[in-house]
Amino acid sequence: SILPSRLNCLQRDTPCFDSPSYSSFAVDSGGSRPIRGSDNSIYEPDDASLPVASYYVTDSTRWGVSNIGRFMDPSNGSYIIYTSRQFTNTLDSELFQTARMSPSSLRYFGIGLKNGMYSVVLQFAEIFFPDDETWKSVGKRIFNIYIQGDLKETDFDIKKQTNGKSYTVIQRQYTVEVMNNFIDIHLFWAGKGTCCIPEQGFYGPSISALSVSSYGSNGEGDSGSQRNSTISRTGLVVGVVVCVAVLGFLAFAGAFVWRQKRRRLEVEMEELFTIVGRPNIFSYGEIKSATDSFSLSNILGRGGYGPVYKV
């Protein structure tokens, strides 16, 4: 009763829902509007200002986010970074033009999830440290990743995972079990990396987007997941039909071209026979009889293809 509004939603043992009703959610970290991703998920915006020790829970109590820590002399009080650059290795470039960061501990919570096995996809891109030849490029962002309290990545470095490239998307996918209708994704800065390059307040964990979806082990899913699944199946069927039609057309075209070439060859041969005459063709039986069953006494000599007989 003394907890601030909705803080109980972020406590594993004090749920704020009557019964679990969700089997997926997706978040665009730092985004300001919903975005439909190439995976058909609707990425909800996460642009809440979370300085020092603060949290945010959506009106639907579907997910929440918390931040702990304070940058020394920060120039970015909202802890959200932006870029207008385009990303070439993803179909969802807009998702990565914003990112949420934290000086110490950044957590995302899934609330009211149906129990079962889930796929957790975390999406990153380094958009603050450039990959040019300037001194700013030596900045390093290193942090650990925990899911459900289990350490998944130690000393995770976004740029290292992309071979030193900035503005390049990298994903990490994990399979986890939800047992108490609750999931905890924790990005934690353990003091490694740089703190002051190119300026104070841009180190610590950073994430661009994340999505959590059920593998359907409990046989149920929310309406959004079912609709997306239906769209995916429809797209698959259409793709198969189009591929079959294209292959059928190519096979028909190939057969038609082959028949045309064969017919043209037959016409050319007939024209040749008209000019030089049709060659004499003998059956095997006629040749055998004429050579007295290929008798050795009828051999005139030998050529490149074997004995030559007189007839």
TrEMBL record:
Reported EC number(s) for this entry are 2.7.11.1
Residue ranges constituting the Malectin domain according to the UniProt record: 24-210
Q: Which residues cross the membrane?
A: 236-258
Q: Which GO terms describe its molecular function?
A: ATP binding; protein serine/threonine kinase activity
* Signal sequence extent: none
Give the CC-aspect GO terms.
plasma membrane
Q: Which Gene3D superfamilies match?
A: Galactose-binding lectin, Phosphorylase Kinase, domain 1
Any idea which UniProt keywords this protein has? ATP-binding, Glycoprotein, Membrane, Nucleotide-binding, Phosphoprotein, Signal, Transferase, Transmembrane, Transmembrane helix
Pfam (any one): Malectin
Q: What is this protein identified as? A: non-specific serine/threonine protein kinase
Q: Which organism is it from?
A: Aegilops tauschii subsp. strangulata
Species lineage: Eukaryota, Viridiplantae, Streptophyta, Embryophyta, Tracheophyta
